[in-house]
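ligand=zinc ion
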Amino acid sequence: MTPTPLSLTLRRPDDWHVHLRDDAMLATVLPHTARQFARAVVMPNLRPPITTTAQAQAYRARILQALPAGLCFEPLMTLYLTEATPAAEILQAKASGIVVGVKLYPAGATTHSDAGVTDIRRVYATLEAMQSCGMPLLIHGEVTDPAVDIFDREAVFIDRVLLPLRRDFPALKMVLEHITTEAAVQCVRDGDDYLGATVTPQHILLNRNALFSGGLRVHHYCLPVLKRERHRAAIMAVLASGHPRFFLGTDSAPHGRHAKESACGCAGIFSAHAALELYAEAFASAEALAQLEAFASLNGPRFYGLAPNETYITLRAQPWTVPHHYGQDETHIIPLRAAEEVSWTLS
Ligand code: NCD
Ligand code: ZN
């Protein structure tokens, strides 16, 4: 066993997949993300979704408006791909300089995905424009076919949709978001510089037993849903190997307590309050702390063609107890690890 260092200094990281929501929820969660990360890729699944550059610009302004004084944070905006997204909108997004990717939600796959894509062939003209101008496609990689078992939806998506898409658009940059399976690890590992993946803290810390330990754990429910231990282990192993095309994306997705603790609870885990600390725990358990900086701070910027951050942060091996909740009323959120310890502290 390599002894765990008492502290770890790394370049300030970025979060390549986060849900910041809007209004009161935005004000509640944004300080947590901005405290840790210099930049974050902000997902567009608001109601209504962010489908135009003008909407992305307005949303970006609201985020900056909600930023507490003294915090320096750059929101990297995304558009929500619909079957009606014109090629011209892609060119405008690219020209704006504030949009870094376009998000593909298969219709019905997850929270607020009803405006998403029912058949990938219906967006081929838009994808053509994205490939030509160098706009990455950010993918929620799950089929929605009700005949496919929910635990198999990512693997089936890779075969049915992702691999054909890669053949048809070999020069379109794609990020397979929040990967959860061995199949996804292998697909991205076998890919080239046009294919990357984000990994959440929950998918390397927990397996699907966490959904049912001692009862139904709604706060461990997210999409793609947690998988078997061997999948968690495969994801952690590829991160421990230092592979350069896997990077940090928390998928921190806050929902009010009542929306989670209900007969039909929403999918989404809030992790922004302790994101980096949770990743550090997972990497420490795998004796891979030496790979944390590249995963958190270097691989993402390289994939997106941006410079890494020039400032540094320090993590100390010192436990703290996560609060029972953050926010109040409709912003009352139960965070990952609520009322339990996290073994690293961000100073
Ligand atoms: C996300 C949300 O709540 O917006 N939920 C989730 O479980 N991850 C949507 C998503 O990224 O799938
Ligand atoms: Zn997400």
